[in-house]
Design brief:
The complex is a heterodimer of chains A (114) and B (111). Chain A is globular and about 45 Å long. In chain A, strands 2, 4, 5, 6, 9, 10 and 11 form a seven-stranded mixed beta sheet that branches. In chain A, 36% of the residues are buried. Chain A is 0% helix and 57% strand. Chain A is mainly β and 114 residues long. Chain A starts with a strand and ends with a strand. With 111 residues, chain B is mainly beta. Helix content of chain B is 0%, strand content 51%. Chain B contains no helices and twelve strands. In chain B, the strands form three sheets. In chain B, strands 2, 5, 6, 10, 11 and 12 form a six-stranded mixed beta sheet that branches. A four-stranded antiparallel beta sheet of chain B has the order 3-9-8-7, with no helix packed on it. In chain B, strands 1-4 form a two-stranded antiparallel ribbon. The chains are: A mainly beta (114), B mainly beta (111). The interface between A and B is medium-sized, with 22 and 17 residues.
Chain lengths: 114, 111
């Protein structure tokens, strides 16, 4: 299994509070991604990174920001959480060398915004 | 833009039944195609993939063939087991690193 961990695994917070989710990898892969999973929508890309300090928006980026100061860590921040951001969040990684370009997923973080 | 349409669930089958989960796609160029599986309470795991037309991906008794002429990548298994109960996602990658997912199909196998 790819070495990907996410923290926290579960979080309950209140509307308007800031929240940061962490994704950590031990594979030294170039690309990292944040997705959210909601019933009826599958997985939707929030933001992704193609290197340290290099990030770009996905299809549902409003209300989220990301940072990547080290190859191994990719942080997702909800500056002011809203109930519509209640979801399960998955991190994924992939490499740019042959045989490493498949995305592998972390275990997920279940976030509830009350 | 790219899109993936997969069979709506839930799908309930008896053990040892034949399984088909349909997946069709719309994409520019020549995408790579994937099936991921999600077991309860876990993240997504790659089940199989195909990178060019007529390729067949296979793993754990599951198969899917990349059909360019019908833009399809249907998942099949000849004899399902209770342990195959999960949510299955079809996905494509077209020209860049980003994946586009279908909405998922929940499969339940009854003993």
């Amino acid at each position: 299994d790819a070495g990907i961990t996410q923290s926290p695994r579960h979080k309950v917070t209140e509307t308007g509070t800031p929240v940061t989710l962490r994704c950590h990898q031990t594979e030294n892969h170039r690309y990292m991604y944040w997705y959210r999973q909601d019933p009826g929508h599958g997985l939707r890309l929030i933001h992704y990174s193609y290197g340290v300090k290099d990030t770009d928006k996905g299809e549902v980026s409003d209300g989220y920001s990301v940072s990547r100061s080290k190859t191994e860590d990719f942080l997702l921040t909800l500056e002011s959480a809203t109930s519509s951001q209640t979801s399960v969040y998955f991190c994924a990684i992939s490499g740019d060398r042959p045989g490493t370009d498949t995305q592998y997923f972390g275990p997920g973080t279940r976030l509830t915004v009350l | 833009g790219d899109s993936v349409t997969q069979m709506e669930g839930p799908v309930t089958l008896s053990e040892e039944a034949f399984l088909t989960i349909n997946c069709t796609y719309t994409a520019t160029g020549y995408p790579s195609l994937f099936w991921y599986v999600q077991y309860p309470g876990e993240g997504l795991q790659l089940l199989l993939k195909a990178t060019k037309a007529d390729d067949k991906g296979s793993n754990k008794g599951f198969e899917a063939t990349y059909r360019k002429e019908t833009t399809s990548f249907h998942l099949e298994k000849g004899s399902v087991q209770v342990s195959d109960s999960a949510v299955y996602f079809c996905a494509l990658r077209s020209g860049n690193e980003k994946l586009t997912f279908g909405t998922g199909t929940r499969l339940t196998i009854i003993p």
